[in-house]
Amino acid sequence: MATVRARGSKFELRVKSKMLPRGIFTATFETEVAARNYGEQLEALLSQGLVPQDLMAERSRASVPTLGKLIREYLNTQPASNLDAEVLELLFSQIGGVRSSDISYPWAETWVRALKLQHNLAPGTIRKRVGALARLLDWWLKRTAEAGGQPLANPLRLLPKNYSTYNDHERKQLAATEDKEGEKAKKAKEDVQRDRRLTPQEEVRIVAALKGEKREDRERALLLPDGEALLELFLLIVNTGLRLREAYRLRAGDINLEHKVVHVERSKTGVGRDVPIIRSLYPMLERRAREAASAGGVSAPIFPWWDGSDDKQELKQVTSYLSRAFSRAFEYAQCADLTEHDLRHEATCRWILLPDKTGSWLFRTEEVMRITGHKDPRTFMRYVSLRGSDLAAKLW
User: Fold this and answer.
1) CATH topology of domain 200-395
2) DSSP reduced 3-state for 29
3) How far apart are alpha carbons 232 and 288 in whole angstroms?
């Protein structure tokens, strides 16, 4: 059915039919006569089961899903990791309107270039976004092939090595581009590799600060709320390698005292794992698990900051609070350049260097990766910061 109505000085034609893209066609004409003539011609074709070629192309394109639609379906049906889910939610708002049929190798190159020159992201951040989208496209292309469609190569998998690194031309472009506010030009970012280890003396000072002991050159001690719990959280992370969010979300039922392991179910990668309990941690974990179970059962958290919910905003607030508390403690202990995440690096090295009865290293690399929850050996090696003295000790 065709209808024509005035729109200012022009006339809008609306034609409804199931054969049309989205079931409706709209167009604007200079005169009412032109609008009605086109509407009559279009209805005559539709009555014969014919659709104009230009509208057929539009209908075909409308049937191609957008990245936004694929992201929603992927997150609703696939076991994506927490990190991938967070990245894909961000990409939904940025490139969700792009049609899947437009994802080509030139598009991939243009997108990566925009992440560098427009968003000025670090190489590691670029790899996270490309990796998350590549896994989504792998899933979509497999589905297309299974449905009888022609499988295509994933263009993101064809990007060259070091695609996330800024080349000389991109560095010059950034250097010549100033911010809208007239501030200094942007700089090409590089991956920052942390190589910060914790010395025995620093650990002693941090423990003292968390216990509330006063430094000789200070008028008062550092008093933090839940200081005892924060101290035990510190000891747990530095001796297991748990991520901060994995550590404070432990429940009473996650502490398996019989098998002497901590079960990490709510992992960043979405894959659970068991982490051995060293002897010095056993009494503390036994006490916390017993007290939590007595108060709220096996599902009760063993630390006081988390209420057991999975609300993303609540988790961000808890993580931010604990990160700030650790920063204050590290600064008071004269370790201002130390971060909470450095504790995971330190724990990884401790697992590698752990000696057996003969003095040799107890665990193989693959076993330590299983303990720390690393999937990619390249990522794992960024956490391995062995001192020359560590290697010399093994030699002698």
Assistant:
1) hpI Integrase; Chain A (1.10.443)
2) strand
3) 10
Question: pTM of the full predicted structure?
Answer: 0.68
Contact 244, 340 (CB under 8 A): yes
> Residue 40 is encoded by which pair of tokens?
């009559």
Please state, in angstroms and rounded to a whole number, the distance separating the CA atoms of residues 72 and 304. 34
* Cβ neighbours around 13 below 10 Å, total: 21
Instruction: Choose from 12-21, 77-86, 113-122, 190-199 the range with maximum mean pLDDT.
Output: 113-122
Sign of CA pseudo-dihedral 208, 209, 215, 220: negative
Cα–chain center distance at 211: 34
User: Are β-strands 261-264 and 273-276 bridged in parallel, bridged antiparallel, or unpaired?
Assistant: antiparallel
Residue 229 has pLDDT above 70, yes or no: yes
Where does the chain show beta strands of DSSP type E? 2-7, 10-16, 24-29, 255-256, 261-264, 273-276
If you average pLDDT over residues 353-380, what whole number do you get? 88
Mean per-residue pLDDT of the chain: 87
Query: Cα Rg for the chain, rounded, in angstroms?
Result: 29
DSSP reduced 3-state for 275: strand
Residues 17, 46 contacting (CB under 8 angstroms): yes
